[in-house]
Amino acid sequence: MIFKNLHMFDDEFIPNKIIGREKEIYDISSAIRPLFNKMPGQNLFIFGPPGTGKTLCAKHVLTEISKSSKKIYPVYINCWVNRTRPAIMYKIMKSLGDFVPRRGISPDEMIDDLNRTLSDSWGVVIVLDEIDKTEDREILYDILRMLNTNIVLIGISNLNSFEIDIDDRILSTYSPKRIEFKPYSVNEIKKILEERAKYALSPGSYNDDVLGLCAAIGYNAGGDARVALNALLSSAKEAQMNNMEKITTDIVNKVRQELFVRKHVNDLKGLEKKVYDCIGNGKTSSEIHNLFPDVTERTIRNILSKLINKNMLKRIKLNGNRYRYVKR
Ligand SMILES: Nc1ncnc2c1ncn2[C@@H]1O[C@H](COP(=O)(O)OP(=O)(O)OP(=O)(O)O)[C@@H](O)[C@H]1O
Ligand SMILES: [Mg+2]
To answer: What predicted TM-score, i.e. pTM, was given to this entire model?
Structure first.
């Protein structure tokens, strides 16, 4: 048995220990802290390359808030999934205390209702992950203006020049403090893997060399913890499939050659290319499968996980066990 707990490799899994991001977590918490004294907080813009822990740290801070106060409302929105103004508004309203918008009422009335719900709150923290995917920047202005309570708006993006797309009026209302997430060092990635392996894999099924090699793969991919975790996961699956008791560096090397060579879109062939091309602005696996009725679901799933490992696609969890696949 290689695996102890497979689901700890899910991208959405929040580990108990977050390695090497103490300062960033402190900075995010500090921006929110004034809300606890019913004072305005500081808006933030978090940026950095893929797999550097931006989403993880933001979600961690939201969880801490909900543990320590019932008066401060956390809201997390992934703008890949909710891109339009109505979708984002609806999501905010739904997240804020089971607020159910009534049919046939105008947006203004809805906001009035919402403000009544929030009348004794100390503040709202809204994380807009992948903020550059919003179709309409005006939503930032709306969010910052619509509630009669203190709001901390936290935008997250891979781009550091996002502000260029925002007009001055919106920017002067948002005026975020910028927090940069730098690529991880190879040692930090190795510690992340050690910590995860301890709980997710059986003791004795891996060794230091295996973790070091996976860490190097993540480091070479741009200091990306996700790539390193996926390298370890794929190697563990490969070992398990071959009925081996241990993951070896040979397996990691084999998996690396098969999966982690970042391909160019033009190098994709056959079904792999068709699947990649059909994704457009993002699709769920069943939407993708429906386009290829002659192919088994398993084949589609394998292609999708290969494309993820090649860093060409990303998976975002919807409700339940559903995922949306988007291009990187
Ligand atoms: N410091 C860390 N400690 C433990 N796990 C980490 C750490 N940083 C990242 N991870 C893990 O790596 C994966 C990617 O992290 P995360 O999703 O936060 O990256 P991101 O910066 O939001 O990337 P993207 O820009 O692609 O959205 C997740 O599975 C997360 O749990
Ligand atoms: Mg993210």
So the answer is: 0.88
Q: 156 — phi, psi (to 5°)? A: -125, 140
Taking alpha carbons only, the member of 87, 114, 109, 77 closest to residue 99 is 114
User: How far, in Å, is the centroid of ligand 2 from the Cα of 124?
Assistant: 21
The two three-digit tokens of residue 94, written as one number: 């739904």
Q: How many C-beta atoms surround the C-beta of residue 325 within 10 A?
A: 22
CA of 116 to the centre of ligand 2 (A): 32
Q: What is the pLDDT confidence band of residue 262, given thresholds at 50, 70 and 90? A: low
State residue 80's pLDDT score: 86
CA of 60 to the centre of ligand 2 (A): 12
pLDDT at 261 over 80: no
Nearest CA to ligand 1 atom 3: 18
Q: Which domains can be identified in the chain, with CATH numbers?
A: 6-13+184-259 (1.10.8.60), 22-180 (3.40.50.300), 265-327 (1.10.10.10)
| Token pair of 226 as six digits | 């996700």
Torsion on CA atoms 309, 313, 316, 317, rounded to nearest 10: -50
Residue ID of nearest Cα to ligand 1 atom 4: 18
Residue 235 has pLDDT above 70, yes or no: yes
CA distances from 10 to 123, 195, 278, 297 (A): 31, 15, 24, 20
Return d(Cα 63, Cα 57) in angstroms, integer.
10
Angle at 32 between CA 28 and CA 37, to 5 degrees: 150
The number of the ligand 1 atom at minimal distance from the alpha carbon of 59 is 18
Give the pLDDT confidence of 239-260 residue by residue, as tens digits: 999 999 999 999 999 999 877 7
Structure confidence at residue 25 as a pLDDT band (50, 70, 90): very high
For helices 249-259 and 225-241, what crossing angle results, to 10°? Answer: 110
Question: Residue written as tokens 């999966």?
Answer: 259
